[in-house]
Amino acid sequence: MRQRALAYLACPDCRAELNVVATKTEGDHIMEGELRCTACRRSFAIRNGVPRFAEQIGEIEQKTAEAFGYEWTNYAELADRYRKQFLDWVRPITPDFFQGKAVLEGGCGKGRHTSVVASFGARDVVALDLSDAVDAAFANTRQLPNAHIIQADLTRPPVKRVFDYAFSIGVLHHLPDPEKGFRALVSRLVIGAAISAWVYGREGNGWIVHIVTPVREHVTSKLPHRLLDALSALATVPLFLATRLVYGPLKGRGLPYGPYLAYIAPFPYREQRSIVFDHLVAPVAYYITRAEFAAWFARANLTDVTIEHHNANSWRGFGRLPGDR
Asked: How far is CA 7 from CA 97, 125, 148, in A?
């Protein structure tokens, strides 16, 4: 972590300021040390450049962190296509929106969105993740002075209420209580700030809900991750051939699950393999209706809300905290 990250961090228990004690530095990074709360005196380790607030988490959260920690440390590479994907997920946000803003990311995985937002000119982006994927995210973003990776539970974000924008892409639906995570992010926004979220949709995913979900819950999420990864490699072969030979050329028109499979058709085999693994490994995955998703924004008293179907199988939402800065 860099010293400037302290401007955003707070004790997750009492919300007080933190002091840093560094025992090892590399350039402007504090690689080893600890953060000490100025009020309740709790301390939190800094290891391998990342502050570690993920302590005393529940069994489901632990299993989820292990699953996605494996995924994003084994599929850690970044790609240019992530820029376009990110903008698809946060529409109507555009790159110029980020200029000079303090941004909070709820669930960063390997840091693919963190690096994109930092490149758009955000003043700082503070990215939280519960899993050991933070090590991959730190490696992928350590050259970016405005990117800060934090290992923490996003339902208890160890940050101050100072952010101009928050977003969470593909993470909230894996929480035991997805709306709790959404509300936690909203709670760290200043007046007039905005939030974006992307979640799995119940509409358009009936076959996954009724066929894939029972298999995932009772079988694949319980397999050793290396074994599941190998099985995912095999399962990806017909998917990759179908998307490249059929869905891509026909742009999915008139085909089952057409919009989504046409969307991923250009992705390389390895990316599609990670998608297959992702859908089979999670202990928890909620498929959320439009009405339920919209209710999150309503109950958080957000305004200027837009909810849109994405690839006919997921929802992207945007809202703003009312009031003038």
From this structure: 22, 12, 11
In Å, how far are 137, 241, 295 from 28, measured between CA atoms? 17, 46, 43
Which residues is 319 bridged to in the sheet? 195
In degrees rounded to 5, what are phi and psi of residue 157? -70, 125
13 Cβ partners below 8 Å, 6+ apart?
A: 37, 40, 42
For the beta carbon of residue 111, count every other beta carbon within 10 angstroms. Answer: 30
Q: Pairing relation of β-strands 124-129 and 102-106?
A: parallel
Tokens at residue 35, please? 């953060």
pLDDT digits (tens, 9 = 90+) for 266-302: 999 999 999 999 999 999 999 999 999 999 999 999 9
Q: How far apart are CA 269 and CA 262, in angstroms?
A: 14
Residues 78, 80, 84, 85, Cα dihedral to 10°: -30
Q: What is the rounded CA–CA span in Å between residue 241 and residue 255?
A: 15
What 3-state DSSP class applies to 309? strand
Residue 275 CB burial class (10 angstroms; 0-12, 13-18, ≥19) = middle
What tens digit of pLDDT does each residue of 95-114 get? Answer: 999 999 999 999 999 999 99
pTM of the model: 0.96
